Amino acid sequence: MKRMIVLSGPPGSGKGTQAELLCQRTGFAHFSTGDQFRFEIAQQTEIGKKVNEYVKQGTLVPDPIVLAVTKNFINHNQDKGVVFDGFPRTMVQAQGLDEVLNDNHKEVDCAIFIELALAEIIRRLTDRRVCRNCGAIYNLSFKHPKQEGICDACNGELYQRVDDQEPTIRKRHQVYEQQTQELISYYRSHNKLWTIPGEIGKDLVHERIMKIVYEA
Ligand code: AMP
Hints:
By secondary structure, the protein is α/β, with parallel strands linked by helices. It has helices spanning about 15-25, 35-40, 45-55, 65-75, 90-105, 120-125, 165-190, 200-215; strands spanning about 5-10, 30, 80-85, 110-115, 130, 135-140, 160, 195. It binds adenosine monophosphate. Adenosine monophosphate (AMP) binds near residues 60 and 163.
């Protein structure tokens, strides 16, 4: 079984949902840099203050900050498998991750990239709503809450992330595309790359991921 899993995909490809499903099934720890940064911003921590502008504008947080947060997470989850969600996003981060794992006698076991066309991404993201209280994710076209604007799980208020509006989505996608080609080549050259077409839908994507993770 693979234990150190990089899960990547453009914003809106469902990588967050897939990471959660995978963690539920395996008991692995979920490390989402995006979630982590939103948490730091909400708590107004030192890191939160540093990353606020980048996250709001959909540009990348500088590598040293991302790597410091990652190192901290890995050190606190020594005995667990980890799903890295939305990280690494740059070559510096990929190499930094290899170094941190290496120091812990571990390595990335596989890098799974979910692929999705831009038109579909825009459609999915502009319909996405998130619970302000528990972080649950809804979609107005295929996973709507029972009551408009209210979370089914905790009655929290649903909101649209500021970076889920179309101009920012385009920007985030462009940033993603620019950075990803190198990462794909990197993991391919180490025989660790797997790609899955996001169009096949949530359940089939999940099945494929499970197969990859459980395969020797
Ligand atoms: P996400 O939730 O993965 O879409 O990330 C939301 C935002 O957090 C991104 O647009 C970036 O500003 C920031 N972010 C998340 N992960 C990273 C990362 N690995 N490197 C740099 N910035 C990141």
